[in-house]
Amino acid sequence: MTQQRGRAKIDAGAVTFIVQHELWDGNVQDHSDQGVAILVVGESGGKETTLLRFNCFDIERSYVYGPEKANKLFRMDPTVDGNPVWWSVKQIRTMLPEMLREAGYPEIADAVDAKKIDSSLAEVESTARELHLTARNTVKHNRGTDIFEAGNIRFGLEMRRQTGGDGGLAIHVLSDLAGTPGKTYVEETELLAFDCFRDSPHYHYGPRNKNHRIFWDKTLVTDPLDWTLNQFKTKKLAAMILRAGYPGVSADL
What we know:
Number of helices: 7
Structural class: alpha+beta
Strand order of the largest sheet: 1-2-3-4-5-6
Shape: elongated
Number of strands: 12
Number of domains: 2
Order of helices and strands: EEEEEEHHHHEEEEEEHHH
Strand content: 35-45%
Radius of gyration: 22 Å
Helix content: 25-40%
C-alpha cells in the first residue's frame, strides 16, 4: 500500500483539493518514487470520488482523468513544463471545468465556482511545495560494524534485525561528501543500502537523498546477497551511485 504523509484537504465549493505526500516502492507500486499528489475530489454517485489526479513526483510526472472512472493517464514533459506543482496548479486554475468534463463528470464541471477555485489555489500550491520539502521519506542507517575502504567509497557491513522480526545482512555504500577524509569535520553519507533480509529484501538509492526503494522479486532473485555482489563485480556500482544523486562520487569511482 502507498505510504502517505501530511494529507491536507482544501475546500473549494463543488470540489475539494487533497494534497498529500506519497512514497512508492519498486515492485510494490509501479516503480520506486516519491513526491506530492494533488487530488481533485467531489461527490459522485453519493460518495466522495477522485475526479482528477496530478502526480508531482521525482520521476512520475503525470495527470489522470477520472482515476475511478475513465482512468486516462497523460504525462507531463519535464523539459518544457517545468516544476510539476506549478504546472498542475496552472492547469487547474485555467482548465478545471474542461478537465472535469473529459474525466466524465460534466455535472460537477457545471457547478464549479471559478472564484472559489482561484482563491483556494494559493493554499494548494504552498501546501504542495511545503510537503515536497518536509515530508520526504529518508532514512539514516548505522554505518556498519565492519568497514572496508575502496578508494573514494567504503563498504559498511552489519547484521540488522528489525522490530517486526525481519532481518539479515545489510551492506552500506558510504562516501565522504564534505571535508577531507581523516579530518574531524568530514561528513560521511550513505549513497546506497542493500538490505538482504529474509522476508522483505530491498535496496535504497540515496537513503539520505532521494530514497528510492526497490523490493526484490524473491521468485527471480532467490539470493539477494549474491545479486548485490554481482552488481559490484559487473561494474554497475558507478551507475547506481549516479542514479542515487551523487555524480561526483560516481565519476571518481
